[in-house]
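Sample pair:
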Amino acid sequence: MGVWEQEALRLCDRYVREVVLAFDLCPWAEASLRAGRVSRAVCMTPEPVPAECLPFVDTLDSSNVPPMDIGLLIFPRHSGGWSAFDGFAERVRRALGERREGRADAKPTAAAAARFLVAAFHPAGAETFVGPHQMVSFVRRTPDPLLQFVRVEIMDRLKESQPEMSEVVTRRNHEALRGERAHQLDVVTRVIRADRDATYARLRSDPNAA
């Protein structure tokens, strides 16, 4: 693993610890994170295609016992903005769906039957928010563009006890992240982003950094 990948993973870990866990943003993610059932990987391609994500999704099922609940795929060199990355996430969703449907031009794998929800995170998310939708973008400002893969079975189990789980969490976070609390999260996010900018500037100036 090269130094770029190592630093991207370190920065992602800062976001997970200092934002997601510290601000109690995602109850289903927290349990998996604390149990070590979250896998992380880095894709260094500036303009990735969905096919480059599929092997990582496969590892969430095939190479772990028990299988991973959540996968975080980081794109530190992604060349597009938020809108382009969101479009890329949608193409990844379609690619996963095509494998499950067994299309003739799709390449089946051992994990083709696994179902995952795909969410896009990006440093250019909303810097302020009013309603719940903007709040989601506000808290998803990761240091690098990132795709989150969540096993559908996890959400299905949670919905058995609370059918409106996602909506409840979004409303709870919207109520909790107001005033000073939102300011604190924003400060932490900006500190991590400054760490990212300084780190990558140093790596770009180092001829030995791969």
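The radius of gyration is 17 Å.
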